Amino acid sequence: MAKATHLSLFLSLFYFISVGNLISANEQKTWCVAKPSSDQGTLTANINYACSQVDCRVLQKGCSCFVPDNLINHASVAMNIYYQSRGRNHWNCYFGNSGLVVLTDPSYGSCIYQ
């Protein structure tokens, strides 16, 4: 009887530690940006798709993420808004293999990546 109790306690403890480590690893903040090697057509398609699914008003002229006014910046912002809104799953940053999940906050100036 004592062996079964010890085994049960060991398995419970092992499960708690394993799940705790998994939860801690998933708490790492990540962002989605466009790969620098992406072509203009892909970046435009990514902006169009992401902004058809999420609110991209921060990319409008005069808003916090408009400048720099270029495709790689706008695509990265739009892709990240989409990625964050969908739960930060790696597949939500795929964008036809043109997205890149990063661990470093890409925010700049008044453009804050959520």
UniProtKB/TrEMBL annotation:
It holds the Pfam family X8. One of its GO terms (cellular component) is plasmodesma. Residues 1-25 form the signal peptide. Keywords: Signal. Coiled coil: none annotated. Residues 30-113 form the X8 domain. InterPro entries: X8 (IPR012946), X8_dom_prot (IPR044788). It comes from the Eukaryota. PANTHER family: BETA-1,3 GLUCANASE (PTHR31044), CARBOHYDRATE-BINDING X8 DOMAIN SUPERFAMILY PROTEIN (PTHR31044:SF57). This is Carbohydrate-binding X8 domain superfamily protein. It comes from Forsythia ovata.
